[in-house]
Amino acid sequence: MITLYTFGPAFGLPDASPFVTKAEMLLKLAGLPYHARRGSLRRAPKGKLPYLDDMGRIVADSTMIRWHIEKTYHIDFDAGLSPAERGIAWAAEKLMEDHLYWAVARVRWLDQANFDKGPAQFFRSVPAPVRGLAERLVRYKVRKTLWGQGLGRHSEDELVALASKGVTSIADILGDKRYLMGDQPCGADATLFAFAGSLLCPVFDTPIRTAAEGHANLVAYMARMRAEFYPELAAAPVPQGAAA
Predict the structure, then answer these.
(1) pLDDT per residue over 59-112, tens digit each?
(2) From which residue to which does any coiled coil extend (predicted)?
(3) Does 2-73 carry CATH code 1.20.1260.10?
(4) Which CATH code, of 1.20.1050.10, 3.30.2090.10, 3.40.190.10, 1.10.443.10, is assigned to 83-234?
């Protein structure tokens, strides 16, 4: 049995991390039995979640997990796609993972109102006398990482413009198709579901969320995917206010 190490559900989403949700979606798409268990960053091989234990073989990082599934279980998530379509799907994944992810991270972690609604709850287990210090240290690291990545150097208006362009590009690729690349899901659908959920999460008030909500096809895609792969979440009330 495969064990997937996760953060756990949060904000009405399958997991607090879109990368964890992506990995879980890949397991669902592959039809592989698995058990989800809350993990520890301290024990994670690369200091991040997700990672999985497949009968003693440890695989860290959502993309490495995908490649492990494909190689070990002889699954081609992109079967039926042409070389050009495979390239588009891969480029869309990287747009979401290496660009939109950081834009969302900035508005969640560095905007005080959104921080209080979301990430602040991750510090509940920290003793009260040092909780504020822990929050400041982690937020400083996030700010420093964003500066190095590049998006942290832009003004808020510039950041929103860049992120909105990315969201529009994804919505344009999706078009009126049921899944990102056609009538059957491909590997990039695991990523799109995970990251579109993060973009559209109603807990957080951001102009990036507003931009995503402006694409009816993206909103409809999320509803379809929730109903198909996470019916328990589709039936649950969607949180609207503070999660903390």
Answers:
(1) 999 999 999 999 999 999 999 999 999 999 999 999 999 999 999 999 999 999
(2) none
(3) no
(4) 1.20.1050.10
